[in-house]
Fold this protein.
Amino acid sequence: MMTRSPNVSGRIFSKIGKAISRFGMIAQDDRITVGLSGGKDSTG
């Protein structure tokens, strides 16, 4: 079984936020769609 560092999600969100800001990926009035998966093929 693989264990994760408790701060992995924080580091991922930080990198995502920095990329969004750096490359201007989201502007005011943009619409954003978020998809989540929890099917048996994506959970361990």
In short: The two ends are 8 Å apart (CA to CA). Residues 20 and 32 are 12 Å apart (CA to CA). DSSP finds one helix and no strands in the chain. Residues 8-22 form the longest helix (15 residues).
